[in-house]
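Q: What changes when magnesium ion is included in the input?
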Amino acid sequence: MPTDPPPSWEPLGPRPYVAGHRGVDVPTPAAASDPQVSGVRPYLITGGRARPIDSTLHVETQVLTTWDGRAALDTLTYEHRDIVALCVRPSAVAEVAAHLRLHLGVARVLVADLVATGYLVIRQPEVGAHQQVQIIERVIRGLKAIR
Amino acid sequence: MDSKPFVDAPGTGRPPLPVKIVIAGGFGVGKTTAVSQISEIPVLTTEAPITEIAADIDRTGQVPSKTTTTVALDFGCITIDEEVKLYLFGTPGQDRFGFMWRDLTEGALGGLVIVDSRRLDDGYPAVDYFEKTGLPFVVAVNLFDGFLSHNLEDVRWALAVSDDIPIVTFDARDRGSVRDALLAVLQRSLARVS
Ligand SMILES: Nc1nc2c(ncn2[C@@H]2O[C@H](COP(=O)(O)OP(=O)(O)OP(=O)(O)O)[C@@H](O)[C@H]2O)c(=O)[nH]1
Ligand SMILES: [Mg+2]
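A: The predicted holo structure follows.
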């Protein structure tokens, strides 16, 4: 749990077109405001190993059904069952939400449940912080190839 | 015993690394158009709940009331190579809410703030959030019908973004133009990490 006080929500500069500023203090994550935190998450996880669900289940995080999940399919209730059936192919949390017409927040909680019970695993390659530059360069090359 | 995945991607031991860029901007600025121009899958949309903290103290007490509303989140993806998959998330965003900016931007490579030069203030919440969290970003002025209501220096002044934040013009209906705007974001991402 972050214990740092949340940064305030004041705009950094004047926004001359705004009649009054709209700010209300809203907590922003300590991690997201930490300049040391990289664009590509440095702590990556394989196989859903011990990390708090909240910090690992991003909207783009890929999850995959396990053998246990496959075996339990008939015993699961509707949304859980649909998710386990869908994730036989790896899917991002946001894809789960869109395909099953679930609110993103709801999908995230259900996916987290299923990871906790071992019916899904988080599928994430190990990537070190030192690889960020290469990854960004690859994305740049990949985009440049688009016509 | 650890749970074993049911299948692994054929022929690969490693799952792809998902990376993302967040595309933000006010209503009707061209976010969905931009994502759909460049995504290799049809754009998917999901509803994301947000908690709004009302700015005004309500009549019943001194505590600001909280309400929940939803906002549509579009996404698409581009397979960069066998190992990297780029997700694009488009959101109208809003000021005064807790959940979604954080969830969307954590771990993002960068952000693209799309603005309509006739309604620049719609871009403020995203600009504020990206500045605050240090996310590399670029402002893209969508040229509706090729018409720019202000010159770019006026846009910079109005948005109060510093000189080092690139402001580009683009056409959300043109794939090459969207690609170039994303490349501008990635140059910023690169400048930050290297
Ligand atoms: N002329 C012109 N029209 C555009 C351009 N970009 C988008 N549009 C049109 O503007 C309208 C809004 O575009 P969308 O892509 O739906 O905008 P959005 O930001 O996703 O809007 P919301 O999801 O409603 O917030 C659509 O009718 C588009 O066809 C542009 O560059 N030029
Ligand atoms: Mg839209």
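Observations recorded in class: The first strand of chain B starts at residue 17 and ends at 24.
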